[in-house]
């Protein structure tokens, strides 16, 4: 009688190990969601106003016009990021709720199968009326339902929207502050481009460090993409220079 009990102990330890791995995976998913929202918001908040200001600066020498275009881009972009993040996270939560309802329905089906199916008791520790196959199915379904009951599997839509908008506004400070105190037009354009490049490099390194990605590769990718965006905007609007 001792052998059946000893055979179930490794399975119990394996279940605990799998549960621990699931919790760690959930933590990684949560962290990835917040990193994505913050880094994406900061990068966009830096790059969009900077590209707008460089584009306006290519066609107009006035500092006021450049700053106004940067402010407009900062406020419009922050609102756009907030709405997009809210819709994205809300949609994911709706999908999770639908999956939870399906899993609950499957659990009900398993319970009906448990009552209807003939049972042969192979393990004295197993409760009466529960076959080994049905027991495994029931445990799996109950585990999935318990995991789905965790409301923090995804960030709150309102918090995610606020974080994205705030990150966007924080990123837009770099080009706006760079242009606010420089009178000479060419120097202003150069300072905006250099300051934005340095900030993009820092954001890329920070995001790679938090996300566990290769720092050099991701930082170079972010900075190269920023250069391309600023260069295209400046080049397309340069023909409109008076």
> How are helices and strands ordered from N to C?
HHHHHH
> Percent of residues in beta strands?
under 5%
Helix/strand class: mainly alpha
List how many beta strands DSSP finds. 0
Write down the overall mean pLDDT: 75
User: Can you summarize the main beta sheet?
Assistant: none
Helix content: over 70%
Terminal-residue CA separation: 94 Å
Question: What do these coordinates show?
Answer:
- This protein is mainly α and 242 residues long.
- The chain has helices spanning 2-59, 63-116, 132-148, 157-180, 185-211, 215-237.
- Helix 1 packs parallel to helix 4.
- The N and C termini lie far apart (94 Å).
- Mean pLDDT is 75; it is low at 1-16, 118-124, 126-131 and 133-137.
- It comes from Hibiscus sabdariffa.
- Vacuolar Fe(2+) uptake transporter.
Primary descriptors:
242 residues; mainly alpha; elongated; disordered N terminus
Topology, element by element:
Blueprint: H1 2-59, H2 63-116, H3 132-148, H4 157-180, H5 185-211, H6 215-237
Helix pairs in contact: 1-2, 1-4, 1-5, 1-6, 2-3, 2-4, 4-5, 5-6
